[in-house]
Amino acid sequence: QGKVHLELRLSEVITDTGVVCHKLATRVLECQGLPIVNGQCDPYATVTLAGPSRQSEAKKTKVKKKTNNPHFDEVFYFEVTRPSSYNKKSHFDIEDVDEVDKMEIRVDLWNASNLKFGDEFLGELRLPLKFLRQSSSYEAWYFLQPRDNGNKSLKPDDLGSLRLNVVYTEDHVFSSDYYSPLRDLLLKSADVEPVSASAAHILGEVCREKQEAAIPLVRLFLHYGRIVPFISAIANAEVKRTQKLFISRDPNTIFRGNSLTSKCIDETMKLAGMHYLQVTLKPIIDEICQVHKPCEIDPVKLKDGENLENNRENLRQYVDRIFTVITKSGVSCPTVMCDIFFSLRESAAKRFQGDLDVRYTAVSSFIFLRFFAPAILSPNLFQLTPHHPDPQTSRTLTLISKTIQTLGSLSKSKSANFKESYMATFYDYFNEQKYADAVKNFLDLISSSGRRDHKSIEQPILLKEGFMIKRAQGRKRFGMKNFKKRWFRLTNHEFTYQKSKGDHPLCSIPIENILAVERLEEESFKMKNMFQVIQPERRVLYIQANNCVEAKDWIDILTKVSQCNKKRLTVYHPSAYLNGHWLCCKATADNTPGCTPCTGGLPANIQLDIDGDRETERIYSLFNLYMPKLEKMQEACGSKSVYDGPEEEEYSTFIIDDPKETYKTLKLIIEGVGTLEQEHAQYKRDKFKKTKYGSQEHPIGDKSFQTYIRQQSEISAHSI
Fold this sequence. Notes:
Layout: E1 3-14, E2 20-32, E3 43-51, E4 54-55, E5 59-60, E6 71-81, H1 97-101, E7 104-111, E8 120-128, E9 136-143, H2 180-187, H3 199-206, H4 210-223, H5 227-245, H6 260-272, H7 274-280, H8 282-291, H9 308-327, H10 335-351, H11 358-377, H12 391-409, H13 421-427, H14 433-446, E10 462-471, E11 483-491, E12 494-498, E13 507-510, E14 516-519, E15 530-534, E16 540-544, H15 548-562, E17 571-572, E18 577-578, E19 581-582, E20 596-597, H16 612-625, H17 627-642, H18 659-690, H19 703-719
Antiparallel strand pairs: 1-2, 1-9, 2-6, 3-4, 3-5, 3-7, 7-8, 10-11, 10-16, 11-12, 12-13, 14-15, 15-16, 17-20, 18-19
Helix pairs in contact: 3-4, 4-6, 4-16, 5-6, 5-10, 9-12, 10-11, 11-12, 16-18, 17-18
């Protein structure tokens, strides 16, 4: 709720009527960390002196606009009478000593609101007067508390009930060097053989929920650029286990469970793919939410006046538009997601070589089933809308999501996937080969990689081809005769051109040799729709596309497949080198570095604000929380090492492929966690010794400080 800084002074005064009374001065200095309500905080405070038989009028500070750390510095005075030397003509009520001791000063914080429902309550503080001595001053910080509503006259069930699950996490993060041993152990997880013996995989084994482990692991690996090798390693291990366990079953079941692999990929897509969803789905989702076209196709649920055929047409148009925007968005897919999909495709293809479709379903099960379909179904959870849609819009999005999910699944009997007959009827609109081809082309693009893998069994994936005009490379004579029409072909391995489709390539440029792809200014050759493919040693291929749309498509897709090349340029020449100089900057040397920054290309790599030390601290906290399971896993390693028979039931929940390696890693984890635990204990001792209870660092109400004091008292008593 935030905290408040108060100064209280109780003074004895003699009034003009001769009454001896006590005056309480309450100074509201400042607040920190007040809650923000609906994106704003315009706070003010009210101060009240209350007792069993009296309550003064609430006194109010000025409103401080647009801050949740307001400085008030306002003083309010209250008179408290004592039963000594008083005048009965005084207009103040007379309380005996017991009642005065029951009085309290109450400070309430409010957010000034223009809403008709009134101002919003932020937090309160109640302080009994009995702790203040005569003529004493007391200054301290206090945590604000939730509202104390007193005894309710309503029965508990009068207003219904609400069940909440609230989790509060507090991280005390040290400087980076404290975490080096544990962090290094985690980051080398992808290189451990088998990966089940790695620290990251062990965390997934001991956590109650895989999601619990996946969140900090993904953030840590993303921060240090190790997410792709780690997910590749655990995905390969999962595919191997699937092959052993389900050798006679459908291989399309891989990655469908809630394994560490699937949870890590889900979390990576949610982090790295949020911008991708914004540029892909948000415009259409916004339109659906605003226009409210009727799209109900269940005859039973039709409203009066609605036409079933019109509704089907409305829904078909929405599905068509969303399907098109998804399948055309491959060039915008974040690089890290593409690299992961490439790894999944390779792993599935190697293990299930007899099934040609598994290389597609391994990817579609994530990008459609766990990314696009959920984002359409619940756009508020993916930051596409601020609130949950209304019932009619929610129903429309549900129908769209079901159809998109089925279109992306590439299963052979799609109509049978629907339990509802009206959905099977509606799906007949999309039962055409062009939809399956579009999905496959999209999956080919997002699961291709410019990185050559010599162990790959996959054939090069064709990404785009077509006729364009190119200028001869490396010649000294210029003119139209040096421009020739050629058939261009782009795969995830190379960019080639030949005289006609099917001919032997006249030129082949490996993807790793594409250092930049940029537009070429029209003045260079007096030709429109030109772009340049820049290669090592300043070798440049100038190409003219058929139109501006084709030029953009080629630039986007070439940039996409080459954007991870280590030697990509940061600057380029927007014009050609002609007649002994660059037309753009007039430099005469043909090897002069570029004069213009390369364009940002595609928003494929979004910079994430991740604190690697904080994520390591969270992983330490999880290991510490599940220490009993780590110790039991150690026992399981010992049991498997000396006993080769059937696995004991209490150890069967752990995946242990190599007991010796797993035991070594567990020992290092427990040592690292123990060291950090000691550092935390020392930190708390030092911190609480140096600070005073009631200070800004430890406001009154700080339970961690109270716990520490209690523990120290118990230790002292035990020592005595």
